[in-house]
Amino acid sequence: MVLRHLAAASTALVLAAAIGVLAGTFGDDQFWLRAVVFGGCTLAPAYGLGWLVFLSGHTGPDPVARPEETVEHDWFQRSAAGAFLDLVVVAGLGATALAVTGLRIDALDVLTALIVLAFADVAARFTVLRRRDA
């Protein structure tokens, strides 16, 4: 088991270092600053990948044999479905308002706002369902 943890950690270090060096080479200046920041930011997801590859099937029995039958899964599915409908409505109303007014907005701002809205909508719906059904 210790060897599996070492393999996951070494996978994380190698992958994060590679991403850091890659990010540093694409910058115009401050190679080491970019490399360290990107490497540090990707270390945790890289360890998650190492854990998935080397440890996920070897840590013991799965506590939930069929996760799609849990109440949490049902809450998340209902929350995501409702949030999707909300996003379609907001995007349609926003597109209509922009078409009528002729206002031009940067796409990055609009997409960022939609993503934040989606996260907040799913979280709020999940919390309401959890409190109502519990």
Automatic annotation (TrEMBL):
Keyword terms of this UniProt record: Membrane, Signal, Transmembrane, Transmembrane helix
Q: Which residues cross the membrane?
A: 33-54, 75-98, 110-128
Q: Which residues form the signal peptide?
A: 1-23
Superkingdom assignment: Bacteria
Q: Quote the protein name from its UniProt record.
A: Uncharacterized protein
